[in-house]
Design brief:
This protein is of the alpha/beta class. 44% of the residues lie in helices and 16% in strands. It has 2 domains: 149 residues, Rossmann fold (3-Layer(aba) Sandwich); 112 residues, 3-Layer(aba) Sandwich (Rossmann fold), CATH 3.40.50.1860. The strands form 2 sheets. The protein has a 6-stranded parallel beta sheet, sandwiched between helices. The longest helix is centred in the first third of the chain and has 16 residues.
């Protein structure tokens, strides 16, 4: 049996497209529906209660599309809201925190792991908590990097300003002698090369987007939710809560699929 219903993917803005891109690669027969909450970003500076409320609205919207599973492609929403919405809904969810933490714990050689993320993700302690549940002896060092999100949203992926900001943020982690660094925000893989250059070749970068896509593929297989093979790639759908033209331009630069339009949703109605 196959299940042709689509999979929902949501994020606070464009960063979740890095997760979307990996999911497209790992489960190419699945139709995906993306929602970017561009009207209310960034999530990283908002309270837990606010993030949970936003997540509930987005889930209600995606369920109108009859999705069979939802990927929470936002570290802050995964940290603050995933457990809550998972308990409230009857469809499976995949977040980005646990897959990334699991791989980081398996990757480190010296037991010293860094996490760069938004203020919300770092203050939640979610990465550290999950890593310590795997191995309590591992050391986790978190660093808030809030300016990375607006710089990526602005498209300054290779700009000297972004490099200067990265140097200031990452210098602190260099002093902790970490050998593994989790890119704890979906925007950060878009400046992965810059971060790698700053940290040096001895530090392994963990991209939770890839690990999340692999976890989703396993979940679909285990639950019998896989779509049947297609002769042509599925036509994905994209929605935002604001600034559709800007999102469309960015999405075309990040993704290899055909994106003809982006719908605008009044997410406050849900």
């Amino acid at each position: 049996m196959s299940d042709e219903r689509p999979i929902g993917v949501f994020d606070s803005g464009v960063g979740g497209l890095t997760v979307f891109r990996e999911v497209m690669r790992r489960v190419p027969d699945e139709k995906l529906i993306y929602f970017g909450d561009t009207a209310r970003l960034p999530y990283g500076t908002k309270s837990r209660e606010t993030i949970i409320g936003f997540a509930r609205q987005i889930v209600r919207f995606l369920k109108t599309k009859d999705v069979k599973a939802i990927v929470v492609a936002c570290n802050t929403a995964s940290a603050y809201a995933l457990d809550v919405i998972e308990a409230e809904e009857d469809i499976p969810f995949i977040g980005v925190v646990k897959p990334g933490a699991k791989v980081a714990a398996a990757t480190t050689k010296n037991g010293r792991i860094g996490v760069i993320a938004t203020s919300g993700t770092i203050s939640s302690g979610m990465y550290g908590n999950y890593i310590h549940s795997i191995d309590p002896d591992l050391k986790v060092f978190g660093k808030e990097c809030p300016l990375f999100v607006p710089l990526v949203e602005e498209g300054w992926l290779h700009d000297s300003v972004t490099r200067e900001v990265a140097s200031r943020y990452l210098n602190e982690l260099k002093g902790e002698f970490i050998d593994t660094l989790i890119l704890g925000c979906t925007h950060y893989p878009l400046i992965r090369r810059l971060i790698a250059e700053e940290m040096g070749e001895d530090v392994k970068l963990v991209n939770p987007a890839y690990e999340t896509s692999m976890a989703l593929r396993e979940l679909l297989a285990e639950r019998g939710l896989e779509a049947s093979p297609r002769e042509k790639p599925p036509k994905h759908e994209f929605y935002v809560s604001d600034a559709a033209e800007r999102f469309l331009t960015f999405a075309k630069a990040v993704l290899s699929c055909d994106i003809s339009s982006t719908g605008v949703v009044d997410i406050e109605r849900y």
